[in-house]
């Protein structure tokens, strides 16, 4: 109930706010009957209910008939308008059609379908935990390969995939016993559908039809109709052929992509399933449904669904999905007591999940027994299916090129409208027939929009794709290539991307008791596993020998590279069975577990020791550790040892404090700052039986550990990394490191490769617990200034924010943050997230979800983001980025649009260069085609003044020879070898583009008008006379010949000035086919102008110009026109407009906070000089600028500073010499030296 006006004055603001909330809730409830939100996986749909209105539909079809289909075509282009013209709004509960809008504002209109129960086929609805509830009738609709059903209880549409949530782990074990019945399978098949990920090839006729009814081709059909009616049969026929060829090429490309995708994702096999109370049955994989129990073959297969492993161990290769080629071990889902019953989560239980599309290399279980798995998801609901859907329905590129293209065509249409009015006026004044007026005026409009434009616009992308393929970079989404030209930020994974895949052992730092025997201390560095020196550290050697996930596949030791390196250094051997005659797929029984053996006499072990690994808690990114339970057969049966290794922070938190040396943090920090990857190792003794060791929860045993020591691994940078980062830095493309490694290690590597630049200060963003009195306050953020191993700050450079000149806005400092701190900022300081992602360039300990979140946040502040990675942790981020680049040996990975066989980041600048070249080519082609149309438009206007026109063969020479041939080779110009610091223009509808077209139009018009008038004043000039009584119109005229000869050179001039070279493409001369074409066309045009052969007179229907001197004058005029056009484009457009004016415009918009400025530029402008904003948000009085800010130096004690203490720029410019190169305050380098930490 709403409060009256008198009453509302007396209530508090809180009460008034509550009344508004109640009102809003009431309105939303009533609106919710018509509209709702449906969330499935990572997508949220907005849906509206509609019922088909027969009267509206009838009127729509009447309108379609009256407009000869034009009205229906318009509705096809605008789906929302189609809905309004055919349906009426209604409640979702009674809707027979659903209007769907996804996260990317794409609209679709879907019919609501029904399933009705029959005596032999009962319809059922998932009710959770693999249970089904029978219903009489089911309402549903499908969208993007997924089904959404009407839930009769909740009264809303829900995704079928989300209905089987909250599944208790015990439920999987129940299903694994007996499987489903045939009746259950039939019910589930109706709802879940066949288990097939099939990219259906659309019929060729459908592809042709859809291509042909695009706006451009509809306009061409209109144009050709006009030309045929005006008896331009030859020219119109050529245009028809060109259009058919263009459509055919487009359809071919579409079909080729569909075939490639289908061959990549389509898979089918026969599977053994357990059904009907435990009976084994062989079925086609398409017949699998969620809840089915399948058997995994011992010697491998390709998974056809997502399934949860119920027993045994499975070794899989997930490179098809993730790009990660290292085999991964999957272990069985643990049995859990009914009382606890935790629910299943893909993220938390991924180590127990076999994903669709992955290759099973081997299974391990008791000899003679089968490995079981319960089907979790099928078809497009699987992880593979989700990736395939993301390819089939890609996220629209947030790139305004296409919209600008249509707006620019509208601009050309305005020019055509002027010509349309001119033509009508001049034709009426000459008393022309209605038919001639109509045809000639419509002809003017058809000339403005070039017929070959759609095909020409794709030339740059196709050429770039071919060049990338030659460089072993494969693209499954060609539309992404143009986007790569706008990339201004690249996120890199560290391990395997920036650094080598393998790690080199550096040293060990064992922990021992001090001489007093009371406190633990670190021993010295052990750079090799020498038996004499390591005699006192037997437990550390045992931990390294056993705490791993290594296994043998066909006799070869396989597993994580780090585990392999450490294990090989110990000299121990690994066997996975006691009896060598047992097949390795049967090496699972706890009586015959994985066994490691030492070499007698080494490390103080006089006799041979066998250690059996009887339980393994696999490594988890979120837990940052792995653990094994080990038994020595020579000891009592209930005497076990637990060994744990992981990140120093995590392992230390699990250890007893009295076992940790007092300088632990300092030692860890010291190694991390030098770029070493640290592994902490700990252990504890257990008194536990074999049976209990197989069921105990890891959190119950991963506690009260004793620290054994640290292992330092050297993760070397790839040889090419420094050079590539140097290229990107020089090009002012922001580089960001996103890794799961330690923060200080990541920061050290970032310094080494210059992601953290030597001319900027670096700060670590960390958290501190709130003071006791303010326990309810937000977690306090602190800044630690990171310095190198020296105690001197690397640099204290001044701000590079140069508003007046409009140069690229930059900051004077860089931040580094860990995943846990990033989560705190996102949760407790959401107002700081946009600022943080703008200046933070190192992200450590990041989970896969956090990597994806980071990419999304970067995009929200208007960065165009590329993500480059090589492993499973990067999949989500690769999908989220504007351009995902996967480093993989496979020719194509569905995890990213780009797959590089080059195993390092050299592919990144290659892709950006080709993207820029493709973008510049697209701009150039469009402006050339627009210029060609307007040049022809001006020629026709001049000839209409004479009441004549170009002849068919003159049209043909221009359109086929001068335009099509040039456009065909336009994209062959290779990309420039160096990345320019200035990004290419990304707006087609910009002042520069419009002034370029208008300016060239003015120059062309002026010179054509000069020749047109000057010809009329020649003594030999014979005016054009309109023929009377002839069946075929004679279009020959002296002025027509003169203006045609001049215009041929103007087309060539446009091709030269719009075929831009440096800094994004090589020079025009590198494009041999285009150069030869232009030279050939120039020669033929000179011949036609100066001394045309006799056959040319008749073929071109020339009215001869008798004086050779005048023909030479036309040639000289064409040369002067070309010089003017070149000077205008080079100095006025490229220099004055694109350079000087753009800097002034950016500076003005930055000062005024205009919406035309990118958000990250505004943020950098406001915070780029000092980082006090990080800690100011956590102060009690954020408005007090003098309040203390907590800042620390990473190698010094904590200090309290005011903001001015660390933000005051130096009074004079700072220069840093690094490897022979001098860097100024802005990070500009005067040489080609590599970036390294200035202190190293």
Provide a compact summary of the structure.
The protein is of the alpha+beta class and 1240 residues long.
Keyword list:
1240 residues, alpha+beta, 7 domains, 12-stranded mixed β-sheet, 9-stranded antiparallel β-sheet, 41 helices, disordered N terminus, disordered C terminus, membrane
Summarize the structure in words.
Belongs to the cation transport ATPase (P-type) (TC 3.A.3) family. Type V subfamily. 42% of the residues lie in helices and 20% in strands. It is α+β, with helices and mostly antiparallel strands. The protein has 7 domains: 1-28, no CATH class; 33-166, no CATH class; 199-265; 271-392, Calcium-transporting ATPase, cytoplasmic transduction domain A; 396-487 and 911-1026 and 1033-1144, Calcium-transporting ATPase, transmembrane domain (Up-down Bundle); 489-499 and 718-881 and 1179-1223, 3-Layer(aba) Sandwich (Rossmann fold), CATH 3.40.50; 512-714, 3-Layer(aba) Sandwich (Calcium-transporting ATPase, cytoplasmic domain N). The radius of gyration is 36 Å and the shape is globular. Mean pLDDT is 79; it is low at 1-32, 588-592, 789-808 and 1180-1240.
Task: List the SSEs and their pairings.
Elements: H1 5-10, H2 13-32, E1 35-40, E2 43-52, H3 54-66, H4 70-77, H5 79-86, E3 87-89, E4 97-101, E5 107-111, E6 113-116, E7 124-128, E8 131-134, E9 137-143, E10 146-151, E11 156-159, H6 160-163, H7 169-178, H8 182-192, H9 204-212, H10 215-229, H11 233-265, E12 270-275, E13 279-284, E14 293-296, E15 301-302, E16 306-309, E17 313-317, H12 319-322, E18 328-331, E19 353-354, E20 359-364, E21 371-377, H13 383-392, H14 401-429, H15 434-448, H16 453-457, H17 459-470, E22 473-475, H18 479-484, E23 489-492, H19 494-498, E24 504-513, E25 520-522, H20 538-546, E26 551-553, E27 556-558, H21 561-570, E28 573-575, E29 594-597, E30 610-620, E31 625-631, E32 639-646, H22 648-654, H23 664-673, E33 676-687, H24 690-693, H25 698-701, E34 706-714, H26 721-730, E35 734-738, H27 743-752, E36 761-768, E37 780-786, E38 813-818, H28 819-828, H29 833-839, E39 840-844, H30 848-860, E40 865-869, H31 875-880, E41 883-887, E42 898-900, H32 907-945, H33 952-969, H34 991-1016, H35 1038-1058, H36 1072-1090, H37 1094-1100, H38 1108-1152, ...
Parallel strand pairs: 23-35, 23-40, 35-39, 36-38, 37-43, 38-39, 40-41, 41-42
Antiparallel strand pairs: 1-2, 2-3, 2-4, 4-5, 6-9, 7-8, 9-10, 10-11, 12-13, 12-14, 14-21, 15-20, 16-19, 16-21, 17-18, 17-20, 22-42, 24-25, 24-34, 26-27, 28-29, 29-30, 30-31, 31-32, 32-33, 33-34, 36-37, 43-44, 45-46
């Amino acid at each position: 109930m709403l409060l009256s006006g008198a009453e509302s004055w007396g209530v508090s603001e809180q009460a008034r706010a509550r009344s508004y909330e109640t009102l809003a809730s009431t309105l939303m409830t009533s609106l919710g009957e018509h509209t709702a939100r449906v969330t499935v996986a990572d997508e949220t749909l907005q849906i509206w209910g509609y019922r088909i209105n027969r009267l509206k539909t009838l009127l729509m079809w009447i309108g379609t008939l009256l407009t000869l289909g034009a009205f229906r075509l318009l509705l096809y282009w605008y789906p929302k308008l189609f809905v309004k013209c055919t349906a009426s709004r209604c409640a979702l509960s009674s809707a027979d059609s659903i209007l769907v809008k996804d996260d990317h504002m794409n609209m679709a209109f879907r019919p609501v379908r029904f399933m009705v129960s029959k005596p032999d086929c009962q319809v059922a609805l998932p009710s959770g935990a693999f249970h089904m509830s029978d219903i009489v009738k089911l309402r549903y609709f499908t969208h993007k390969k997924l089904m959404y059903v009407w839930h009769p209880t909740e009264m809303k549409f829900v995704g079928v995939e989300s209905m089987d949530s909250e599944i208790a782990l015990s439920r999987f074990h129940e299903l694994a016993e007996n499987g489903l019945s045939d009746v259950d399978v039939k019910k589930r098949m109706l709802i879940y559908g066949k288990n097939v990920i099939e990219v259906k090839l659309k019929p060729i006729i459908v592809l042709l039809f859809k291509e042909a009814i695009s706006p451009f081709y509809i306009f061409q059909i209109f144009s050709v109709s006009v030309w045929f009616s005006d008896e331009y049969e030859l020219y119109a026929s050529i245009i028809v052929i060109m259009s058919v060829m263009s459509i055919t090429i487009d359809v071919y490309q579409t079909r080729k992509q569909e075939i490639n995708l289908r061959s990549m994702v389509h898979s089918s096999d026969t599977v053994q399933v357990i059904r009907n109370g435990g009976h084994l049955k062989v079925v086609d994989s398409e017949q699998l449904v969620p809840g089915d129990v399948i058997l995994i073959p011992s010697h491998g297969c390709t998974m056809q669904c997502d399934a949860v492993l119920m027993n045994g161990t499975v070794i899989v290769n997930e490179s098809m999905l993730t790009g990660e080629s290292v085999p991964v071990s999957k272990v069985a889902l643990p049995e859990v007591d009914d009382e606890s019953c935790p629910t299943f989560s893909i993220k938390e239980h991924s180590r127990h999940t076999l994903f669709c599309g992955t290759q099973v290399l081997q299974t391990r279980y008791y000899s003679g027994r089968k490995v079981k798995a319960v089907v979790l998801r099928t078809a497009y609901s699987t992880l593979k299916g989700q990736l395939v859907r993301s390819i089939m329905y890609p996220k629209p590129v947030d790139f305004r090129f296409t919209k600008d293209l249509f707006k620019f065509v509208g601009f050309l249409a305005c020019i055509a409208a002027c010509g349309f009015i001119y033509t009508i006026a001049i034709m009426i004044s000459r008393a022309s027939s209605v038919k001639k007026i109509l045809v000639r005026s419509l002809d003017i409009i058809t000339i403005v929009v070039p017929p070959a434009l759609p095909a020409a616009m794709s030339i740059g992308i196709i050429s770039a794709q071919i060049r990338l393929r030659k460089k072993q970079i494969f693209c499954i989404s060609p539309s992404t290539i143009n986007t790569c030209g706008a990339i201004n930020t690249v996120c890199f994974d560290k391990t395997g991307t920036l650094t080598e895949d393998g790690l080199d052992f550096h040293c060990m730092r064992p922990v021992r008791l001090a001489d007093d025997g009371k406190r633990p201390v670190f021993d010295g560095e052990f750079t090799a596993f020498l038996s004499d020196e390591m005699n006192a550290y037997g437990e550390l050697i045992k931990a390294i020998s056993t705490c791993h996930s290594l296994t043998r596949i066909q006799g070869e030791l396989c597993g994580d590279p780090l585990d392999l390196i450490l294990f090989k250094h110990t000299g121990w051997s690994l066997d996975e069975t006691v009896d060598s005659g047992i097949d390795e797929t049967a090496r699972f029984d706890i009586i015959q577990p994985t066994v490691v053996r030492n070499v007698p006499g080494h490390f103080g072990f006089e006799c041979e020791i066998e250690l059996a690994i009887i339980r393994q808690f696999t490594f988890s990114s979120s837990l940052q550790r792995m653990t094994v339970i080990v038994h020595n057969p020579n000891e009592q049966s209930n005497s076990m040892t637990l060994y744990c290794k992981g990140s120093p922070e995590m392992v230390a938190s699990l250890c007893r404090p009295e076992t940790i040396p007092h300088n632990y943090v300092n030692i860890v920090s010291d190694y991390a700052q030098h770029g070493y990857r640290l592994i902490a190792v700990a252990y504890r003794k257990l008194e536990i039986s074999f049976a209990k060791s197989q069921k105990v929860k890891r959190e119950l045993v991963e506690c009260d550990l004793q620290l054994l020591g640290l292992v330092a691994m050297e993760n070397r940078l790839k040889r090419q990394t420094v050079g590539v980062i140097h290229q990107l830095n020089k090009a002012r493309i922001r580089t960001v490191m996103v890794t799961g490694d330690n923060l200080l290690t990541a920061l050290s590597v970032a310094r080494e490769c210059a992601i953290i630049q030597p001319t900027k200060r670096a700060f670590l963003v960390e958290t501190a617990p709130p003071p006791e009195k303010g326990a309810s306050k937000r977690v306090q953020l602190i800044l630690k200034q990171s310095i190198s191993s020296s105690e001197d700050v690397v640099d204290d450079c001044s701000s590079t924010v140069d508003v007046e000149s409009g140069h690229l806005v930059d900051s004077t400092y860089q931040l580094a943050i860990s995943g846990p701190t990033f989560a705190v900022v996102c949760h407790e300081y959401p107002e700081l997230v946009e600022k943080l992602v703008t200046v933070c360039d190192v992200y450590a300990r990041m989970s896969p979800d956090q990597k994806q979140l980071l990419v999304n946040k970067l995009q929200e502040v208007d960065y165009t983001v590329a993500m480059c990675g090589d492993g499973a942790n990067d999949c989500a981020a690769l999908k989220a980025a504007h351009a995902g680049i996967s480093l993989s040996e496979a020719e194509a990975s569905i995890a990213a649009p780009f797959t590089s066989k080059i195993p390092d980041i050299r592919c990144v600048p290659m892709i950006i260069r080709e993207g820029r070249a493709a973008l510049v080519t697209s701009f150039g082609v469009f402006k050339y085609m627009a210029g060609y149309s307007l040049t022809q438009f001006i020629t026709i206007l001049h000839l209409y003044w004479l009441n004549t026109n170009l002849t068919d063969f003159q049209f043909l020479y221009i359109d086929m020879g001068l335009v099509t041939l040039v456009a065909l080779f336009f994209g062959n110009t290779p990309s420039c070898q160096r990345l320019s610091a200035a990004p290419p223009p990304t707006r087609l509808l910009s002042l520069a583009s419009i002034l370029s077209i208008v300016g060239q139009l003015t120059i062309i018009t002026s010179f054509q008008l000069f020749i047109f008038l000057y010809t009329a004043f020649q003594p030999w000039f014979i005016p054009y006379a309109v023929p009377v009584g002839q069946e075929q119109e004679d279009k020959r005229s002296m002025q027509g010949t003169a203006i045609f000869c001049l215009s041929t050179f103007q087309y060539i001039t446009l091709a030269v000035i719009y075929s831009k070279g440096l800094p994004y493409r090589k020079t025009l001369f590198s494009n041999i086919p285009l150069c030869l074409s232009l030279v050939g066309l120039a020669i033929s045009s000179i011949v036609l102008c100066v001394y045309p052969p006799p056959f040319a007179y008749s073929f071109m229907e020339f009215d001869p110009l008798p004086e050779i001197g005048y023909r030479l004058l036309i040639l000289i005029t064409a040369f002067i026109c070309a010089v003017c056009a070149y000077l205008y484009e080079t100095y006025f457009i490229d220099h004055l407009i694109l350079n000087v004016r753009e800097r002034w415009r950016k500076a003005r918009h930055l000062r005024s906070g205009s919406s035309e400025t990118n958000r990250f530029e505004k943020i950098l402008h406001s915070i780029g000089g000092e980082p006090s904003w990080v800690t100011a948000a956590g102060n009690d009085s954020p408005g007090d600028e003098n309040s203390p800010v907590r800042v620390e130096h990473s190698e010094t004690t904590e200090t309290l500073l005011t903001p001015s203490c660390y933000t005051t720029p130096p009074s004079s410019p700072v220069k840093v010499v690094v490897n022979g190169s001098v860097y100024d305050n802005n990070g500009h380098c005067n040489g080609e030296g590599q970036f390294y930490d200035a202190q190293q």
